[in-house]
Design a protein that fits this description.
Layout: H1 2-7, H2 32-35, H3 71-89, H4 95-107, H5 109-126, H6 137-159, H7 165-181, H8 185-202, H9 205-208, E1 212-215, E2 218-221, H10 227-239, H11 270-291, H12 306-331, H13 338-359, H14 372-386, H15 403-417, H16 421-431, H17 441-456, E3 469-477, E4 482-490, E5 496-504
Antiparallel strand pairs: 1-2, 3-4, 4-5
Helix pairs in contact: 3-4, 3-5, 4-5, 5-6, 5-7, 6-7, 7-8, 8-10, 11-12, 11-13, 12-13, 13-14, 13-15, 14-15, 14-16, 15-16, 15-17, 16-17
Region (Disordered): 1-21
GO molecular function, one term: metal ion binding
Pfam families: Fungal_trans_2
């Protein structure tokens, strides 16, 4: 019996998978009914996917596109990540390039192509510092090919209804960047207009709960309005020298508390100070969006509401705290290099502009006369920034928030709002020396000069209240090299005049 057993060992049934090992997604032990077939990598169980008690299909996360590119592309991407994001963020918001666009490049093919084009193009330009426009022909061809692919893929995604509006706006920004780096003002303006138009059409849908929006005749899914939307609005607001504030459009930034809290600011680096001021500026932009711009047909003498007055006081308190903290921090620095010095000047300029804007909100424009010393400092500091040509930091050629933008906007603001004839003319003259951004300084200077001539009526005297221009906006037609300016003026009796002027940009 024993011999027979030894010769014919008992056959046992092969064991199935050990379900006690648990789900490879959550590692919890489930029953064989809920978690059978877990030999598939990353399969889930009923705890992970409770909607169905059976085996769920494998849910793939969006693959990182960088794993599908070659060494050359990885090099261009790394250059974009380490150099371009820092340079393009410049003196303002870090979230756009270092967060939104960089993250999208890992998952959205059209963004990746655009980022590779930017990295390659900027890398080539940096290799020839004495001729910033010079680009290696092979690198230029590579960049243009990537630009074309990015534009084509984005267009197909829009037509196929497989992209939300935020990605479309991001696409406008990265394509705009390529145009600016090549010095193509016309293409940059086209992308700026497209992105701004989408934002203006999108943001009001947040209030009515719309699920879709029409972009260039195509329906695009509408996603919830939130922090990312604020980053995009801030980008387009600052990219335009006009500082398009999207008046009247909803903002997801909550208004300040009715009581002013204790504001404790502390800076250890200039970067900290810049980040703090950026947050204040973004909140001021949101404030302006909430309450809109002043109606030129209504007397500005009417008192502001309690809510608006409280918010203005809040911002003034915050700004006072910021400048006191910054001055104290800067005075204690033992070593101030060229970059730190230049950044400090830009921050001071932006501080003064923000203070004047919030302090004069919805008040008679004559009140700007009280801020003549601040206007003078804006012009003087801007002049120092513009002539800092030997500083490598000043040669930033990114499309967003660089010295060109940081200088052009304040100078245009002085030319628009300051009534001193000599000072506003100095601002316009300095504008002509501003390098290339989305708009060239020379182009913006033409608008500023027209405003000065129209308001002063060639008298060279202080502007009378009824000669002030309101709602000044402009658009440039690069093909014809002509510009159109729209403005309104309120007479003494309150009658509104609508003014339209055409400028020859080629002269």
């Amino acid at each position: 019996m024993d011999d027979v057993s030894a010769e014919n060992p008992k056959k046992t049934r092969k064991r199935g998978p050990n379900t006690k090992k648990g789900c490879s997604t959550c590692r919890s032990v489930q029953s064989a009914v809920h978690c059978e077939g877990l030999t598939i990598a990353a399969a889930g169980c009923s705890k992970c996917y409770p909607k169905s008690p059976n085996l769920q299909p494998r849910i793939l996360q969006t693959p990182d596109l960088l794993g599908q590119v070659g060494p050359q592309e990885v090099g261009h991407f790394d250059y974009f990540r380490t150099e371009c994001t820092e340079e393009f963020s410049g003196f303002f918001d870090q979230n756009l390039w270092k967060r939104l666009i960089l993250q999208a490049a890992h998952t959205e093919l059209f963004v990746l192509h655009a980022v590779l084009a930017i990295g390659a193009l900027r890398r080539s330009q940096r290799a020839t510092p004495h001729s910033p426009r010079a680009t290696n022909p092979m690198m230029l061809e590579y960049s243009l090919r990537k630009y074309s692919l990015a534009s084509k893929i984005l267009g197909l995604r829009i037509k196929a209804d497989t992209v939300n509006w935020k990605l479309v706006v991001l696409g406008s920004l990265v394509l705009l960047a390529i145009e600016v780096l090549q010095g193509h003002e016309s293409g940059a303006l086209m992308h700026l207009r497209n992105g701004a138009a989408i934002l203006k059409g999108i943001l009001p849908t947040a209030a009515d709960g719309s699920s879709t929006v029409v972009v260039s005749g195509t329906t695009v899914p509408h996603t919830q309005h939130g922090a990312e939307s604020e980053y995009l609005v801030a980008a387009f607001t600052r990219l335009s020298v006009q500082e398009l504030p999207f008046f009247g459009l909803p903002s997801s930034i909550a208004p300040p508390a009715p009581t002013i809290p204790s504001q404790i600011l502390y800076f250890t680096t200039v970067r900290d100070a810049r980040h703090s001021l950026n947050s204040i500026i973004s909140a001021v932009h949101a404030f302006v969006r909430r309450y809109g711009q002043q109606d030129p047909g209504i007397s500005p003498i009417q008192p502001l509401s309690g809510v608006i007055s409280t918010e203005i006081s809040y911002f003034q308190t915050i700004l006072r705290s910021w400048i006191q903290t910054f001055n104290s921090f800067f005075s204690l620095l033992k070593h101030i290099d060229a970059e730190t010095s230049l950044t400090a000047k830009v921050l001071i300029v932006q501080y003064h502009v923000t203070w004047i804007k919030i302090s004069c909100f919805h008040l008679d424009e004559i009140i700007y006369d009280q801020y003549l010393p601040q206007f003078e400092e804006i012009v003087e500091r801007s002049k120092e920034i513009i002539i800092a040509e030997d500083d490598p930091w000043s040669k930033s050629r990114g499309p967003c928030f660089t010295l060109d933008i940081a200088t052009a906007q304040p100078l245009y603001f002085v030319a628009r709002k300051c009534r001193d004839p000599q000072l506003r003319r100095r601002a316009a003259e300095l504008m002509e020396k501003v390098g290339t951004g989305v708009y060239t300084g020379r182009t913006i200077a033409k608008v500023a000069e027209w405003i000065i001539r129209t308001e002063e009526s060639s008298t060279g005297m202080l502007v009378a209240a009824d000669h002030r221009l309101h709602d000044v906006s402009f658009d440039f037609h690069q093909e014809t090299r002509m510009g159109t300016i729209l403005a309104t003026r309120r007479d003494i009796d309150g009658t509104l005049q609508h003014i339209t002027e055409t400028l020859d940009l080629a002269v």
